[in-house]
Amino acid sequence: MDRRGFLTTAAATAATLPTLRSIAQAASSKSATITLHSDEPGPTVPHNFIGLSYETQQLSDPKFFSPANHGLIAQLRALAPSGVLRLGGNTSDYGFWKPTPASTPPPRAKREYKVGDPPPDLSYAVTPEAVQNLRSFLDATGWTCLYGINLGTNIPALAAAEAEFVARTLGPKLGYFQIGNEADRFGTTIRDPKTWTADTYLDEWLTFAKAILSRLPNAKFGMPDIASNAQWFATIGDRLANDPIRSHIACLTHHYYIGGPPSDPTMTIGRILRRDPKVAEVAKTVRAAAAKLNTAWRMTEGNTCYRGGKPGVSDVFASSLWAADYLLTLASLGYAGVNLHGGDGQMVANSLGGKLPGDDMVTDDPATHPHPYYTPIAHIGAKYVAEPVYHGMLAAQRFAGTQIVPIDFDPGKVNATAFASKRLGDPSHRDLVVIIVNKDESQSLTIQLPKKPRLLEVISAPDLASTAVKTEPPVRSELSEQTIHPHSIAIFTMDL
Fold this sequence. Notes:
Layout: H1 10-15, H2 20-25, E1 29-36, E2 50-55, H3 70-79, E3 84-88, E4 95-97, E5 124-126, H4 128-141, E6 144-149, H5 156-170, E7 174-179, H6 198-215, E8 221-226, H7 232-240, E9 249-259, H8 269-272, H9 277-293, E10 296-305, H10 317-332, E11 338-341, H11 345-351, E12 377-380, E13 383-386, H12 388-397, E14 402-404, E15 407-410, E16 416-423, E17 431-438, E18 445-448, E19 454-460, E20 470-472, E21 481-484, E22 488-495
Helix pairs in contact: 4-5, 5-6, 7-9, 10-12
């Protein structure tokens, strides 16, 4: 039995999965069709589309993001040659810049503890050593960084001093600053709910941004990094459309979790494999605001189930299928990139009050499971392990640096999605990449593909609840009719 075999949810999950006989007897769909519109323009997917999100408190351990962390460096390099590391999360608003051993944190107002948020007394230091090590870590990975600065319990002068040191140290490895994390939730935690709005947030954000610009005239920012209130984008777009500071806004940012917490009985494998209409709705809202500011937009923190993920849902092959589908959907919607949240389990636990809720849902030793449960890369023992979500991200990385090709796709009764893109700037590689994600638990998808498709790779697992993800090159085939088996990701290439 594998390290996740004793989930309390296992019986319920198994009941929803097909037997081997039902898989063998399932009829393949004969109605799937796809049409590629390769002459129509689609969004360009940046080279740095793929990213990971970690808690800013990770910097309290200068050895974590350092050139000595060879295991983590190897996993990032294997995931994407030019990815984006985002530092933020709930702990982002509880750290302080400590440039000297004698430096002390700014005073803060007391508050009551709220479930799902950091303890009211959480405080940690970010030191010059941690930032210097971060630069060496980024050099080793080839990645850049979105650097989160405390808005919730900070003062503008200290934020500006930290930003100046970070910019000088990270240099070209700094993408932009983000001031504050999920400020649309501040009214329930660290601000007065009677007065806290998008406007009061923006007033406060401008104070911090201007303090940073006084030291770094060319500083760039991502904002507002909201949790879920997409209406904030309309306020920001309207207020800043004619403000000179708009030239310093590099990106509009937001978060996305399907649902939660882990105790929510509706957070199932079936739910994460259904399309969420909110994804396209939020994309439309943020795109409209970005157009007013002439800037990009990015999903900077998200995953399946909020508060650390749900065992048996967030850490199994179903999450691979979700990740590939979700990331490629955002690429097709014009997003500049995606950062899926994870990292060190204790740091994510700190962001939630000290414990991962998912630990109460397993009956074996929680230490044998990935922490947090939804993390793309788990730190288990002395090793950094690629989890199921990671494999879905690898599939989406195939589109980095390409241009989306619009398609018409009808999978019939099969729960499947398809995406296409073409390479840019290299006339010697005039090819298309087509990725088909079959999220169905039992039905195969049979489809006619044009132009002698070449099957490059298949990512699969024995079933949706399996942790045994397998990536393998298939037997070479250029037949137009292809069968995509249940719960698998198939990656094709063909001539343009």
